[in-house]
């Protein structure tokens, strides 16, 4: 008897018992439904995580900073296994010692920048934009100087808020809502929606960036001097702020003034003096400064990451503002004088001291003593204070104070990519650079960097996989239970068809043929169970997706791949066939004569 014939006989038998067959198939499908739903949800969540990962990783640049703290972060308590000592002695766990030995490392970005320029064609194929960051922050002031100079960047809110909360003071001191935008228009268009106005196009144009809820921080309003910072000391005023709203037009056209960093310094008595505390002088500098105008209101698109420092929005400018500031700093008299006299501190008129000593008139020349005597008491105090402030300065520190940057030595390099795969290829390119430097014995030029977002996303993907495996393991128990049930039902079928077995044996059917008949019957039941389970799962994905989409705004969270569905149907068939092995063997061993006598 062929297997096809066995299938036909078994199918006809199952048709005579439709109700029991469907109930058996449904019972057998419960495990399949459970596993299919888990796998559908796991697949949907994994796809969502992958999409978020790719969108996030593409929108965020691969950043390599000059300062890397990998060594410092790697420092941990000495947890190595050591024999426990019980001799009334206390050992030392050298946590602080190890921490002090671990210094913050530095990446040689100058060498890497040169490498990028030497492999420009290769780098161009791997990136869509490269941005070099420098430790240069423009000085921004409010345009209105009628009540004196008002600092916006760096922020002086910490000095204007009356609070004993040192944590709050520290937060306000580090407050910075200003960031540099990418110069690549395609990146801007892919990351931001223009709510009003347009993108900035030159050094004098800036934009306001709001958060995903079209909100900006109250601190930004105070930082920009749109709200009076004195209100921060008035609780009633702060409570009223929560009910206020603004229009886009309230910000479009708003202006500020940028003052070149070196314009703060003036040469007096052959020494350069910082006049930032001189309100009259700074007022003139602000009035003559570069006017910055808000020309647009932007909002970052869903699934992207903003380059703005603050999560609740901020102000962004183009790289041309940094270029403008750097160029004017480099061409300033104070920088030219300092670079021409690298051993002389232009702020003190003394050589950079290896062993600096506090100010003393005994250390002055006769000419310097005469100049000091001609000064007013206030000027003398300012001179002494400036002398002591610059006492331990070095040539490099003076240039940094002036805002001088070395274009060949960026503080950070940001590499933007167009796709997730391109970012992976870029990492391989950087790893190849590191390998080449190691082989050349230039370990000091090996770059240390990390992609924290990818690490987090990979951890989430791994977690989803682990949870899926555990849940499938639990649900698989129901498959075993249903297999036992099918085995019992098949055995009952054997008992019911004992006479039929006898007739078939009398007609020449072998034991193998009998086994084949019942194996075919269990295979049909397994197929029906599998198909029914997949059908129920597919129907269940519609309400599941609708509920999840309504609750989280994430669609198609339950997706059952076709290959998974086919595999589950196959598993169902195999399990039911295994469950029918014992009953089919019992049926094959029945004596034909005894079977014919049964009723």
UniProtKB/TrEMBL annotation:
Q: Where is the ABC3 transporter permease C-terminal domain?
A: 474-592
Query: Which InterPro entries does the UniProt record give?
Result: ABC3_permease_C, Macrolide_Exporter_MacB
Compartments where located:
Cell membrane
Keyword field: Cell membrane, Membrane, Transmembrane, Transmembrane helix
Q: Which GO terms describe its molecular function?
A: transmembrane transporter activity
The keyword Mitochondrion belongs to this UniProt entry's keyword annotation: no
Q: Which GO terms describe its cellular component?
A: plasma membrane
Which topology term describes how it sits in the membrane?
Multi-pass membrane protein
Q: Any keyword Repeat?
A: no
Instruction: Give the matching Pfam families.
Output: FtsX (PF02687)
What the record says about family reads: Belongs to the ABC-4 integral membrane protein family.
What's this protein's name?
ABC-type antimicrobial peptide transport system, ATPase component
**Phylogenetic lineage:** Bacteria, Bacillati, Bacillota, Bacilli, Lactobacillales
């Amino acid at each position: 008897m062929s297997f096809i014939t066995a299938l036909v006989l078994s199918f006809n038998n199952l048709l005579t018992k439709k109700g029991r067959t469907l109930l058996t198939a449904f019972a057998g499908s419960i495990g399949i439904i459970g596993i299919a739903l888990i796998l559908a949800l796991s697949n949907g969540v994994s796809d969502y995580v992958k999409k978020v990962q790719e969108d996030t990783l593409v929108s965020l640049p691969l950043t390599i900073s000059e300062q890397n703290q990998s060594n410092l972060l790697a420092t941990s308590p000495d947890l190595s296994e050591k024999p426990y000592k019980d001799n009334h002695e206390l050992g030392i766990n050298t946590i602080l010692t190890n921490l002090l030995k671990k210094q913050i490392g530095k990446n040689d970005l100058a060498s890497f920048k040169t490498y990028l320029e030497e492999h420009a064609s290769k780098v161009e194929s791997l990136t869509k934009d490269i941005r070099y960051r420098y430790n240069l922050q423009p000085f921004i002031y409010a345009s209105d100087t009628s009540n004196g100079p008002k600092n916006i960047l760096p922020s002086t809110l910490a000095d204007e808020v009356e609070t004993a909360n040192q944590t709050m003071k520290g937060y306000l001191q580090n407050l910075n809502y200003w960031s540099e935008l990418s110069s690549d228009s395609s990146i801007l268009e892919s990351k931001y929606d223009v709510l009003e106005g347009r993108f900035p196009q030159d050094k004098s144009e800036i934009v306001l960036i709001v958060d995903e809820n079209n909100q900006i921080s109250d601190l930004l309003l105070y930082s920009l001097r749109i709200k009076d910072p004195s209100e921060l000391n008035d609780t009633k005023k702060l409570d009223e702020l929560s009910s206020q709203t603004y229009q886009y037009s309230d910000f479009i056209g708003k202006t500020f003034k940028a003052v070149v960093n070196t314009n703060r310094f003036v040469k007096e008595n052959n020494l350069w003096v910082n006049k930032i505390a001189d309100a009259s002088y700074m007022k003139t500098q602000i009035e003559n400064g570069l006017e910055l105008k808000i020309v647009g209101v932007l909002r970052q698109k869903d699934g992207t990451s903003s380059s703005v420092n603050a999560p609740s929005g901020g102000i962004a400018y183009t790289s041309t503002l940094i270029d403008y500031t750097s160029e004017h700093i480099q061409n300033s008299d104070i920088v030219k004088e300092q670079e021409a006299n690298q051993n002389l501190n232009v702020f003190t008129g003394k050589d950079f001291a290896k062993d600096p000593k506090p100010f003393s008139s005994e250390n002055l020349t006769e000419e310097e003593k005469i100049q000091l005597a001609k000064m007013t008491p206030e000027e003398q105090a300012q001179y002494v204070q400036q002398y002591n402030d610059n006492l331990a300065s070095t040539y490099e520190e003076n240039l940094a104070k002036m805002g001088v940057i070395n274009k060949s030595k960026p503080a950070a390099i940001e590499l933007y990519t167009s796709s997730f795969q391109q970012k992976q290829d870029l990492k391989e390119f950087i790893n190849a650079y590191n390998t080449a430097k190691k082989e050349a014995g230039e370990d000091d030029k090996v770059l240390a960097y990390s992609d924290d977002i990818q690490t987090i996303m990979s951890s989430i993907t791994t977690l989803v996989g682990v949870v899926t495996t555990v849940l499938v393991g639990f649900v698989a128990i129901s498959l075993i239970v249903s297999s036992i049930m099918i085995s019992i039902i098949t055995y009952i079928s054997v008992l019911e068809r004992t006479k039929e077995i006898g007739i078939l044996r009398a007609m020449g059917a072998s034991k193998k043929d009998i086994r084949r008949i019942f194996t075919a019957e269990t295979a049909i039941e397994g197929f029906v169970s599998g198909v029914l389970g997949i059908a129920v799962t597919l129907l269940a994905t519609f309400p599941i997706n609708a509920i999840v989409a309504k609750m989280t705004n994430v669609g198609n969270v339950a997706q059952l791949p076709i290959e998974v569905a086919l595999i589950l149907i196959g598993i169902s068939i195999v399990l039911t066939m295994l469950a029918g092995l014992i009953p089919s063997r019992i049926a094959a061993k029945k004596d034909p004569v005894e079977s014919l006598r049964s009723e």
